[in-house]
Amino acid sequence: MRSVAVLLSLLCLTTALVPPCSRPAVQPTRRAALAGVLGLAMPSMPALALVTGSKPPEGGFKAKKAKCKNIDACEAAGEKAADQKFGTEEVAFERTEGGDRFRDLTPGTGKKAAQGDAVEIRYRVMRLGTRARDGLSGEGQTIFSYGFGEDEDKEGDKMPVQLDGKNLVAGADAAIIGMQPGGRRRVLVRPERGWRLLTGACAEGEKTLDLTAAKRTSATDGGNLVFKADIGAAIDNVDACQNKASLPQPRTYGQRQRFARRFDESLMVEIDLVAFSTADTARKESGQYYDKCEQNPFADGCES
Questions:
Q1: Same domain for 177 and 284?
Q2: Looking at residues 187-198, what average pLDDT do you find?
């Protein structure tokens, strides 16, 4: 209590709130006296932020200086930056016999592939990149691939196929002709040279339906037509005109879903010619291979 009395005496002499040398009517407790002294001696402090991230930066917020004055200037700056990154010159390309644009990314060596050969390939099927002015340059977005370990396949996998004009889509088949083992070629595959069917109703394009059932235009060839009614409602069968037989084809559910929305576009296809193969190996891959003795070693004429 003696220390409390000393504190009160000092408080009495240094403040004008209590008359000098006056004594309180009631002797205060130690806790009350300390609370009063601390309350007068310590200035009020601002509340501290409870969340570290909400603390404002030192010096306050400062507006960033604009790098361009208007939309046109900003677009021009963006084009300039893109040109510096990707280049402005279009890459020289060649054409296949079917008119498909292609260019070699990596040259190969050895024998050139010809029609009728069986080969082993890896591939990527990609959407055109934002800078693909010629359909071959820029960065593409992969829809599906095989042999690069980008999905459920393994890096180094290869697909045997025979170049007979039927196993592969036309654009890919023509692009492999003339390639050498170890080479990589990028080809622009247009829908009509790729995965769009050009038979029956798919070749006719869209038709219009009359609201009267008797006057409706019917689709032939299995009903593969995508109709549009006069009232604007669409009866869509998105992948009805998609070629699902010719290689390359997506192998997983996710790949098929992505490709169903893109098969009717011009696409970039990168092909690696790994090596030459045999016709029997290629037929096994396509499901067209049958060997009696391999299926039944005990069949007539198969005993060694």
A1: yes
A2: 94
